[in-house]
Design a protein that fits this description.
It is found in: Cytoplasm. It holds the Pfam family Thioredoxin_5. It contains twelve helices and eight strands. By secondary structure, the protein is α+β, with helices and mostly antiparallel strands. A hairpin with a 2-residue loop joins strand 7 and strand 8. The radius of gyration is 19 Å and the shape is globular.
């Protein structure tokens, strides 16, 4: 159920930001609707990145975190670890990737969601999570060490604490805070259209938003690596047919590859 409500200030004080809005996005990385949410976030970033900072909070509902961590930590080698599979492991893997930096964590999360969308491999298994780390260009040795560390599991537990403290009961949810930490935040639970989030940004900033010009297609793919036809159409405000035609040209130029799934397509930087 979609809801919008006023919230108290964030649980931890935030410093004054050069970008006046702080946006928390609560997601379950294994949820099937995560790709649609990602498309909205990307369009917001392309158009209004100058106004907000973004923080993803993993909110997977799991009662057996300790059991999963014990199974991973009890492995004596990566070969024993390969067959371990559990729904909590993707979230811990994202946190392990974040220990290599925010950008590394974001790359890993985007690649994980791509695997979930294509549904080709078991993303709950350690072997697939390691494969994703390689594709996300992480330091593999460091990732394996961090994946088995208490720091990664505690970081995930911290996300679950934030979820409880902000009374987030549904994913996805957005929580907007402005730079005045005494002001209440605005929680938006459920899925809404892009225009709703755009309007909220405008109201929080109490002024007209200045939309940035989108980058070239080549620059867009360097930034996000994998996009759907629908995403490209939305970002450039063109029809899906026009987007598909232009992307086919890029494919003929050997700049992108096409991945078919269900009734649509993903395009990946070559």
């Amino acid at each position: 159920m979609n809801t919008i409500q006023i919230m108290p200030a964030p649980p931890s004080p935030t410093t004054t930001l050069s970008r006046p809005i702080e946006l928390y996005v609560f997601i379950d990385p294994l949820a099937p609707n995560s790709w649609d949410l990602q498309a909205i976030i990307r369009k917001l970033q392309v158009n209004y990145n100058q106004y907000f900072t973004l923080r993803f909070v993993l909110s997977t509902e799991l009662a057996s975190l300790n059991v999963a961590c014990q199974r991973v930590n009890s492995c004596n080698s990566e070969y024993e670890e390969i067959d371990v599979s559990h729904p909590v492991l993707p979230s811990i893997a994202v946190k392990a990737a974040e220990l290599q930096g925010k950008k590394a964590g974001y790359r890993y999360l985007m690649k994980l969601q791509e695997y979930v969308l294509l549904n080709m491999k078991n993303v709950r298994s350690c072997s697939t999570l390691l494969e994703i780390a390689k594709e996300a260009n992480l330091d593999i040795q460091e990732f394996q060490t961090d994946f088995q560390s208490l720091e990664a599991s505690r970081a995930f537990q911290s996300d679950l604490c934030i979820t409880r403290e902000m009374d987030v009961e549904e994913v996805p949810s957005f929580v907007f805070f402005n730079e005045n930490i005494e002001d209440e935040g605005l929680k938006v639970s459920g899925n809404y259209s892009y225009e709703v989030y755009e309007q909220i940004l405008e109201e929080l900033l109490d002024g007209e938003l200045i939309c940035q010009q989108p980058p070239s297609v080549e620059e867009l793919f360097k930034r996000y690596h994998t996009l759907s036809t629908k995403e490209v159409a939305s970002i450039y405000n063109i029809t899906e047919q026009t987007a598909d035609r232009e992307l086919k040209k890029k494919m003929l130029q050997q700049k992108v590859d096409r991945i078919n799934y269900e009734e649509s397509s993903l395009w990946r930087l070559k």
